[in-house]
Structure formats: C-alpha cells, structure tokens
Design brief:
heterodimer, A: alpha+beta, Alpha-Beta Plaits, six-stranded mixed beta sheet, B: mainly alpha, Fumarate Reductase Cytochrome B subunit, 9 helices, binds iron/sulfur cluster, iron-sulfur (chain A), metal-binding (chain A), nitrate reductase activity (chain A)
C-alpha cells in the first residue's frame, strides 16, 4: 500500500445557480493577461449543450484521454513515437476558433465620434489582431440554452439515443437545464502529464495538484490534445501551456481557491482523500461500467490504522491526517456515494466529483412544477429513461445504476426532512424509502447538514502551510532556510524571439 | 584576404556565438525556449508549411551531415551512374519539399493577421535567410553537377579542416559564387541561431521515449520520512 494524498473536490450541481462568479474570480486572479484572454480555467457550461471548447466531450473529434489497449492503457491520440513524428503539426489540436476569438470594444468611439444622425457604437475588436471583428462566439455563447436549439441538440451525450427517445429529449430541453462548472480535475492518471514530451507537466506528490512548469514547457502542445476535459490551454502569446493550479499559493496559506471562495451557491467542497497508488494501474483497467466503483475502490479509509501508518510513511503530518478524516469529499464520494466523477470513461480518474442534479428528473416527470412529495418517485424515476441515461453518460460512463443510487438518496433525504418539518408524510413510508435507498436517518441528517447548512470550514477542509513543512523537511537546518522566503529571482514570462 | 575573413574567422565567430549565447539564454532566459507554435491560431495552412518544411530540411541536413563523416563511401556509391542520379534526384526532391514548405510558411506568416500578431522582427529575418539559404541550395543542386560528389570532394575537406582547427581554404578559392554564398549563409544561420526561435532545436524532447508516462514531484523528502 502506497498511501498518497489528493486534494479533491465535490461540486453539488443541484445548488449551482449558473452565476459564473467562480469564473470571474478565477479570471481576475490568473488569466487577465495577453495570451490568456480566451482561457477560462474555471468555466460554467449549460447542459444540455456543447460546452467549452465546443464539443469537448466528443473524443472522436479531439481524441483526448486514454483507451484500453491489449492489457495496457494507451493515450487515445498518440503513442510516444507517433507523437514525436507529429511534433510539427498536431492532427487533433483544438484551435482558437473552437473556444472563441477574444474581443473587446472600441469604447473610445463612443466619446470621440463626430456628431451625426446615429448613435455612435463601440465596435468589437479582436484582442489578438487588434482589428475590428464580427463576434461569432464567446464564453457561454449557449448559456441557459440561449441562442439556438442547435447547441443542446448537438450535446455529445445524446449520441446513442433512439428516435422515440428524441421526443422525450425535446421535452427535457424545453423544461430544464442545469450547469456544470468545470475546473481541472487534477486527475490521478493525468493524460496531460503523460503526453508532455518535455516533462513540463507533473503531479505534486504532497497534494496531487497537477501543474505545468513554465520554464520547462516548450510549446509542443501535446497536453492540450491529450486532456480529455480540455483543461490545459495554450497561451498563444508566450508559446507555453497553462492550466488551473488549484490556487496552490492560496491553499498553502490555508485559503480556499478563488473559485471556491467566491462560489455564490456554496456548491463547492474541498478536502483531502487518501488513495492507494499501488492499485491505481490495475483499477484503471476496469470495464466502463465498473469504472466509478473502481475509482472509489482505491480511495482509502482515513480512520484505518494501516492507512494512517502508510500516510505517515509518506511524510504526512497529523494535521494532514486529521484533515483527511474530516474530509467532506470523502463523505460525498466514498461514504454516501452521492458524488460521481465526470466522464470516467476517459480513464484519467478525475478527482473532481459531481453530485448529479435532481432537476432534470423532476422536470421530465412533473412538467413545470417540481413536486417532490411523490410516493412513486422511485419507480417513476426509472421510467424517465432519457434523463437517467443522459446523466449516466456524463457522470458514470453509462452506468445508470450509479446515477440512480445518488438521485434516490438525495430524494430520500428531502423526504426525510420533509416528514420532520412539514409532517405530511407517513413515517412508515419514509422509513421504507430510506431502506430502499440504503440510507439511515442519521446519515440522512448528516447529508442534509453538509448539503444545506455547511459553514466555510466544513466545506473546505485542508491543512494549510505544507510549504513550510516542505522547507523543514528538505532543510534539516531551518535556520538556514530563514532567508529563503519569497520567490527569489524570477524571469518575466515574455515571449521568445 | 576576404576569404580568410569569411571562411576562417567568420565560422569560428559564428560557432562560438551560437554556443555561448545559447547557453547564456538558456540559463538567464530559459523561459524563452519554446517552439513558439502558432498552430493554435491557424491550423490548416500550417500543415502544408510546417510538415514539408521540417521533414524536407531534416532529411537534407542529415544528408549533409552523413557525407561529412563518410565522404569516401559517398564517392564510392556515386561511381555507378544510376545510383548517382537517384541520389541527386532524391536530394533535390527533398530540398524542393523544404522550399515549398518554407514558402507556404512565409505566405502564412505575412498573410494571416492572427499570425502577424505573433511575429517578431527576428522571425522575418530568419525566414528571409532560410529562404535564401534553401534557394541557393536548390540552385546548386540543379546547376552544379554533381553536387553530392562535389560536396564530398571539395567542401567536406574544408569543413573538416575547420572542425580539426587547421583551417585550410585552398579549395574555397575555386568555388563559384553560389556555393560561397551557400556556405556563408550556413555560417550566418549558425551565428543568429541563439537570437531566434531556432533554439527550439536544442530542446527537442527525445528523452520522452525513455521516460515513464507519469511524473510525480515531491517537495517533501519522502525517503527521510520513511526512515524516521
Ligand atoms: S483534467 Fe486534464 S489537465 Fe487536469 S489533470 Fe486531468 S488530464 Fe490533466
Ligand atoms: S459561483 Fe458557484 S453557483 Fe455560481 S456558477 Fe460558479 S459554481 Fe455555480
């Protein structure tokens, strides 16, 4: 057993209001520079929809992630040799038009234009060329199913759908949509790291954060193609790749990442998970339908004596172990089985988990009113084939059982609390439903508390200051490290000539 | 006199410049070492430029290099006429391949507004020099028969004398202008190498072939904690 720590996340989608505050917080801190205007390390997309970059889930187009070869995983797009042969032109690289051409407006024209019969307008100008342009796409172009039915209809998750189901789908589109906020998943088997020929990308041993070393990156752009979530971005100005850093400078000082901190819906949870790195390779080989459980399988119980001993062996201090024991992520993912990874069929083992939203199911069942007191909910839920199938395609590599399990439990928690506060349900019936969903009253209470009333310190549980520990560990003589604070000499990230 | 300057001092200056400045740039401004790929901004035309250019020029340069090491064997090979023709034809085709790729790259760089936004003056100088150099090479291949044998007999001894630090320019005096220019062009490219995007050659990531896929970096000293 090789106990590793992974900083992991849960996003509770039923709480996301699609306000994009997270995206803005991130942009203001990290990507408000030339070359990064188009990057949204955190983006929020409407589902059903084609997402950002357009159709990123369609790996026939982008060929990201891994696939199961004979007994071994291989990168879908490339092999080592083939990769190097393609170094002069990457066949599956997304281009700026798959995102959007960043733009601003010539606001000055509003003040400077001569008097005339018409109102002056501020023309859009490209932030790449500086020339006037026609805006054809932008971030969240299809927000809230806006603009055109084209976006929803082309959602890659509808690929295996029959004619009859299409009818239902139309209902779904008409009735409901939900949001998926996405950041880098800081995967356990990151395709981006594996594909980088320069070795610029790496996973931090202490917390599993995946980073690009800007000094080592040479702009070969394999990572952009290989990440199936399209969460590495090419800075067209500096000629280097950049990605979400999980705000590690904030984490190290005990602050939640900017997108977490600013989240209006408080949908985000951050916590430590222990996992067994020795069993990683084997569990990545599971069949598609078993992938969710395979991933949960290598997550270790932080109360287990052996696990704790293993954690100590890898240098983890008491506060790290305590944080893992209080991890909200551990509860949502492993204990309660409410949260699911995004597209596990890409086989990177993403460590950002989503609690699937109830809304599409309710919407499909009940029309415009999202009535939650239906006794026959369980049977009805299974009749709503399309939404389940659709959610399963996103959150459980097609395994509908996993989505159902989560939805049922979420539903039962509501019923349980309703019977407590409104008192209009037969307690016997509530108990039956709890049983059927594999939930106890205590667990339901805990889920309710952590979902609806968590304080900031319950949502973000991680040990601060591991950088200080690192210095102490690397440098037995801490006195010698005294002068090493700060960043020291750094090079300006200017483009080469 | 000119010949001494251009064919004895210049190559050494160029070479020293290339080594010293590349090293200094790597140490002091390592961030600027990048392929500076612009595929992200323009994809289609890059394919028709970058691919023929790179494969063409790599093959041609490899040819130059191989003959530098084994001029005798080449002359032996060229003794049979059809082999000579085949070799010359292959060389010319590859050079034309590179030339077409280069022309496409130039048109793309000048014609596309997005690409112009990421074009430095050095890029333009480099493209012009490369065009000149490849052009002269093609001219040599077409008009001076037979380039490959001639290179082995006349240029390789000179180049070798440079490498062995006993510069001998007796051969140089009889070279036609085209060939002199081609050689000087080559030295010039070496000289400006460290000031251009050509430095991406130095960071070609061949070590990828041997390294395991995943890379984990620890700040903690794990072995220390495992012993404790
Ligand atoms: S989401 Fe993409 S960029 Fe992030 S770790 Fe996974 S493969 Fe790498
Ligand atoms: S800030 Fe929170 S609620 Fe708002 S879009 Fe982002 S994740 Fe959703």
């Amino acid at each position: 057993m090789d106990v590793r720590l992974q900083m992991s996340m849960v996003f509770h989608l039923d709480k996301c209001i699609g306000c994009h505050t997270c995206s803005i917080a991130c942009k203001n801190v990290w990507t408000d520079r030339e070359g990064t205007e188009y990057m949204w390390w955190n983006n929020v997309e409407t589902k059903p929809g084609t997402g950002y970059p357009t159709l990123w889930e369609n790996q026939d187009k982008y060929r990201g992630g891994w696939e199961k070869g004979n007994g071994k995983l291989k990168l879908k797009a490339t092999s080592k040799v083939k990769g190097l042969l393609n170094i002069f032109h990457q066949p599956h690289l997304p281009t700026i038009d798959d995102y959007y051409e960043p733009f601003s407006y010539r606001y000055k024209d509003l003040f400077d234009s001569p008097e005339g019969a018409d109102q002056p307008t501020a023309r859009p100008i490209s932030m790449i060329t500086g020339r006037p342009m026609d805006i054809e796409a932008g971030p969240n172009w299809d927000d809230d199913l806006g603009g055109s039915p084209v976006y929803a209809a082309n959602d890659p998750n509808f690929k295996d759908i029959t004619e009859e189901e299409k009818q239902q789908l139309f209902e779904l589109e008409r009735l409901v949509f939900f949001y998926i906020p996405r950041i880098c998943n800081h995967c356990l088997n990151p395709a981006c790291v594996a594909s980088c020929p320069s070795g610029a990308l790496y996973k931090r041993g202490e917390d599993g954060i995946v980073l690009v070393n800007q000094q080592v990156c040479r702009g070969w752009r394999y990572c952009i193609s290989a990440c199936p979530y399209k969460k590495v971005y090419y800075n067209w100005k500096t000629g280097k790749s950049e990605k979400c850093i999980l705000c590690f400078p904030r984490l190290e000082t005990g602050q939640a990442p900017a997108c977490f901190h600013s989240c209006v819906g408080r949908i985000r949870y951050l916590g430590c998970l222990f996992y067994d790195a020795d069993r990683l390779v084997e569990s990545l080989q599971a069949d598609d339908l078993d992938l969710v459980e395979a991933q949960r399988g290598i997550i270790l119980d932080p109360f287990d004596e052996q696990v704790i001993a293993g954690a100590r062996l890898n240098g983890m201090e008491d506060n790290v172990i305590r944080a893992a024991q209080n991890s909200p992520v551990y509860k949502y993912v492993k204990l309660w089985k409410l949260a699911l990874p995004l597209h596990s069929e890409f086989r990177t083992f993403p460590m950002l988990f989503y609690v699937p939203p109830m809304l599409p199911i309710m919407g499909a069942l009940k029309g415009q009113t999202y009535e939650t007191a239906d006794e026959e909910f369980f049977t009805a839920v299974e009749k709503a084939r399309v939404p389940i199938k659709y959610l399963a395609s996103i959150f459980s590599a097609g395994n509908e059982g996993k989505v159902l399990e989560s939805l049922k439990k979420q539903f039962v928690v509501r019923q349980y609390k309703r019977s407590e506060s409104v008192n209009d349900l037969d307690p016997e019936q509530v108990r039956r439903m709890l049983d059927e969903a594999g939930c106890t009253p205590e667990e339901a209470e805990e889920i309710y508390r952590l979902t609806s009333l968590p304080s900031e310190t319950e949502r973000y549980v991680f040990p601060p200051s591991h950088r200080e520990q690192a210095i102490e560990m690397l440098q037995p003589d801490t006195w010698g490290a005294k002068g090493m604070a700060g960043f020291g000499f750094r090079e300006k990230p200017v483009r080469g000539e | 006199m000119h010949d001494t300057l251009l064919f004895i001092y210049y190559p050494y200056v160029a070479f020293i410049l290339a080594v010293v400045i590349s090293f200094m740039r790597y140490v002091g401004r390592g961030f600027s070492y990048s392929s500076l790929s612009s595929q992200f901004l323009e994809n289609r035309n890059l394919f028709y430029g970058s691919v023929p250019w790179h494969y063409g020029i790599i093959a041609v340069l490899t040819g130059h290099l191989v003959v530098f090491f084994i001029p005798g064997s080449l002359l032996e090979f060229n003794r049979v006429p059809w082999r000579l023709y085949a070799l010359e034809l292959t060389g010319l085709t590859l050079a034309l391949f590179a030339l077409v790729g280069l022309l496409n790259l130039i048109v793309r760089r000048l014609g596309n507004a997005r690409i112009r936004a990421v074009t430095s003056p050095m890029d333009l100088i480099l493209l012009a020099l490369l065009l000149l150099q490849v052009g002269l090479g093609v001219e040599t291949a077409i008009f001076y028969r037979w380039g490959s044998s001639w290179y082995a007999v006349s240029a390789v001894p000179y180049l070798r004398s440079l490498v062995l630090l006993h510069p001998d320019i007796t051969q140089v005096a009889v070279w036609p202008l085209t060939i002199k220019l081609h050689v000087i062009g080559a030295f010039t490219l070496v000289a400006i190498f460290p000031f251009t995007r050509l430095v991406h050659l130095l960071v070609l990531p061949l070590h990828y072939l041997w390294r395991p896929y995943q890379k984990v970096v620890w700040n903690w000293d794990r072995r220390r904690s495992q012993k404790a």
